[in-house]
Specification:
The complex is a heterodimer of chains A (320) and B (311). Chain A is of the alpha/beta class. Chain A has helices spanning 46-53, 81-90, 99-102, 109-120, 125-138, 144-148, 157-168, 187-204, 215-221, 239-244, 249-256, and strands spanning 4-15, 18-30, 35-39, 63-65, 68-71, 74-75, 92-95, 175-179, 207-212, 224-229, 232-238, 305-309, 312-315. In chain A, the strands form two sheets. Chain A has an eight-stranded mixed sheet, with helices on both faces. The longest helix of chain A has 18 residues, at 187-204. In chain B, 33% of the residues lie in helices and 26% in strands. Classes of the chains: A alpha/beta (320), B alpha/beta (311).
Chain lengths: 320, 311
Amino acid sequence: MPLLQIENLNVSFPQHEGVVQAVRGICLSVEQGESVGIVGESGSGKSVTCMAALRLLREPPAQITADRLDLGGVDMLRANRRSLAAARGKLAAMVFQDPMTAFDPVFNIGHQIIETIQAHRPLSKADARREAASLLARVEITAPEAILNSYPHQLSGGMLQRAMIAMALSCRPQLLFADEPTTALDVTIQAQILQLIKALQAEFGMALVMVTHDLGVVAETVDRVVVMYGGKVMETAAVEQIFDAPAHPYTQALMASMPGRTPGKQRLVEIPGASPNPATPPGGCPFHPRCSVAMPRCATEMPPETALGRSHTAACWRLQ
Amino acid sequence: MTAPQSPALELRNLSKTYRRRESGGFFPRYGDHLAVKSVSLTLPQNAILGLVGESGSGKTTTGMMALRLVEPSAGQIFVDGTDITHLDHAGLKPFRRKMQVVFQDSYSALDPMMTLAQIVAEPLHIHRLGSAAEQTEQALAMLDRVGLGRSYASRYPHELSGGQRQRVAIARALILRPQVLVADEPTSALDVSVKAQIINLLLDLQAEMGLSILFISHDLSVVRSLTDRVAVMFNGRIVEQAATETIFTDARHPYTQSLLDAIPVLNPRLRRARSFQSRDALEATTPRIAGAGPTPALFALSPDHQVEAMA
């Protein structure tokens, strides 16, 4: 049985202008130890999917419905507060994009990691502190004791992100959600953090869900890729398939528009238009207004997922 | 007035020192922080020069000094062959027309109370170029040129997407037909699918208007597609400078190499275990220079490729 099983997940936020439909009927499953990348642009629903899986969204305003939302055997839709709290941290933990805002500025790093450990494990404060220090050492922080006593503003972004990863690992989760963990960091630090996450994943035997807009990050870190657009899944495939033979026009266009693929100053292949407004998504396939091979049918009907090979599916009328 | 061969923009030994609090309490002690140390750069006419480096390397400060939006502590700035370092407000005004800027965050760069036509026409208004009707007409033509169309004229910035706002910022910067454009990370806040649109727009406008662009970025993939030359900054100074492809194929400075190593490879089959230069090793070869210490010399490997001598 998969570790995470999501079927027909819908997340919406009622607002003045109407209902913002962030996620519209997506299915996703993650096996034990597997690493999955969710690729999408802002507004595609990739972060909301992860937040909804852990029930971290404030409800209301968020409205979550699903045929199934299963995390390690826990029914996350019907679980009460207590079992939700037990599942978070132990079954799955999350690393956020901006470590500066994810930490509380008025407590030192040690306090925040120890608090997390004690919330989930029956350890004394002294033991929890020892555990925190060893976790920091595990994420390649050279002077853990000094960092435990530091406040967030005293540390660099890369250092804070390491501390956040240490905190996420403190209860040995079976699944780690990493939501754009390197977007706020410098390129050289990004490479180091990605390598660290991969190494820890192997060591702890965790599953990984890497949320990103960067195809390069995907190429470097995951085994399977889910491409999202306008709150829907466009394509799912093994990472090699996505790069060798992308099937969906959106994935193809995204690949072609990446800068720096070939040497020399040059115009790039561009995708016309802009991402859809989640309050007023286009009918049918959300990509059809920008798609170069769209047909009349694309504007009215969402295409079903078509199986294209082992573990490769795409939702496009052209592939029917 | 000026020789036709003079570069569009030239910086000579430009430095910037900020005062910084070194110890707190009731009687804080202040010290000097050298944000930029003796930077020399040449932006030839009709070229795009990439300025890359990590956050805190001084690349934005250098760009802002070139525009005299930040006053340099030492050094000289030449625009089209004229030294503008010490010009006063009135003396600088004609040069403001020749150099414009596009910022990273288009949301805070555009006045939310003005329509797009007003925003784009404002530089013409400030420099008193043409009648009000002519100014509006030019603004509409410029909106058209950056791909927004005249129907956008009476809209407000909040109605636009990030890519569209960046188009407005580019239109406003280029309506005065400047010679030099400083573009400070104009694509980093944009979605992947929109980034290519803005890069293409900059390439087209550069060729069309004979523009010279100082393109500040930390995204080396974008730099490779857009620029003719690259200067790499680290710890407040330029450590390597060469033609773009030379940087990508024959980088010599350890910091440049570590930047290139860090670019994700777009092929999952070529995944590799990376060995990272430790930060301490980099700092040791290229330390930040405090106070008035001498700047390490740049060696010319070829007439076109300079790299800082390493300790």
